[in-house]
Amino acid sequence: MPTFQNTTASSIIFLLTGVPGLEAFHTWISIPFCFLYATALSGNSLILFVIITQPSLHEPMYYFLSMLSTTDLGLSISTLATMLGIFWFNAREISFNACLSQMFFIKLFTVMESSVLLAMAYDRYVAISNPLRYATILTDSRIAQIGVTIVIRGTVMLTPMVALLKRLTFCSSRVLHHSYCFHPDVMKLSCTDTRINNAVGLTAMISTVGVDSVLILLSYILIIRTVLSIASPEERKKAFSTCISHIGAVAIFYIPLISLSFVHRFGKRAPPYVHTMIANTYLLIPPVMNPIIYSVKTKQIRKAVIKVFQSKEI
């Protein structure tokens, strides 16, 4: 295994890892991943297209959905090249600066997705608790401000975390254990004290994804309290039904994230390929499933998609 001493970060070429122990099957393993990428890219592009082209979807809920599809596209594109490059061509090398860039965008789109899910939770809360003022509270300009704030928040919180990696020197193996650049993975290869990096990284994730998850939970407690105060069972059912798609999106984002954390912490005896496969799929589950959930569970999206396909047939 190649090693080097006191190497400056800017001169490093890292080696990414496919699926340990299953290198002979990388071509076959690439098939389901190709299918997942194709589904994620086409599904989210279709959602964006129908929201942009259909005037009936020019409403706050669908503007936030378009933001979610944009972050899912970004998340998919961030890992596509390195992952399929490894499976198809055994292209494992990645420069330090390219690694930092990929790491930044993966983290940025992950934090942005969490922020968008929080904004969507707020949207559902306003729609259910104060429907008469819904249009005046969530105006187009306010939604645009929320979108810009989401991007700025992620950039400001994550830039120090990634930039601090440039101060490290590396004197151990240059082999990373994922098919993409993962922040803890890079730090493990350093022979420099990484306590500052760990603290900044942990602070960034707690103050973004951690805070968002708590606020989403709080918003649903308030939503449930509001819905239970509605006298009509039919109205209660209708109010809850508007949240089903969002609850599904929250679940498929946070459950894989939590599962990956548990596997890294408590699954040390599991074969290496288990860690790698979970790490590879956890970033693809939300981009693949979100368009499916919203197409199946949201009648307006489903009708708009059908209308688009019918217009292409004419």
Instruction: Report the mean per-residue pLDDT as an integer.
Output: 89
Name of the CATH class: Mainly Alpha
Q: Major sheet: size, sense and barrel closure? A: 2 strands, antiparallel
Overall shape: globular
Please write the string of helix (H) and strand (E) elements.
Answer: EEHHEHHHEHHHHHHH
Helix content: over 70%
CATH topology: Rhopdopsin 7-helix transmembrane proteins
Strand content: under 5%
How many beta-strand segments? 4
Count of discrete alpha- or pi-helical segments spanning 4 or more residues: 12
Q: What does this protein structure show overall?
A:
There is one protein chain. This protein is mainly α and 314 residues long. It has a single domain, classed as Rhodopsin 7-helix transmembrane proteins (Rhopdopsin 7-helix transmembrane proteins, Up-down Bundle). It has helices at 26-53, 60-89, 96-129, 134-137, 140-163, 183-188, 195-228, 233-241, 244-266, 272-282, 285-297, 299-313; strands at residues 7-8, 13-15, 93-95, 169-170. α1 crosses α11 (285-297), α3 runs antiparallel to α5 and α5 (140-163) packs antiparallel against α7 (195-228). The radius of gyration is 21 Å and the shape is globular. The termini are far apart. Its main location: membrane. Residues 43-294 form the G-protein coupled receptors family 1 profile domain. Pfam families: 7tm_4. It is a multi-pass membrane protein.
Please describe the structure with a list of short key phrases separated by commas or semicolons.
mainly alpha, Rhopdopsin 7-helix transmembrane proteins, two-stranded antiparallel ribbon, two-stranded antiparallel sheet
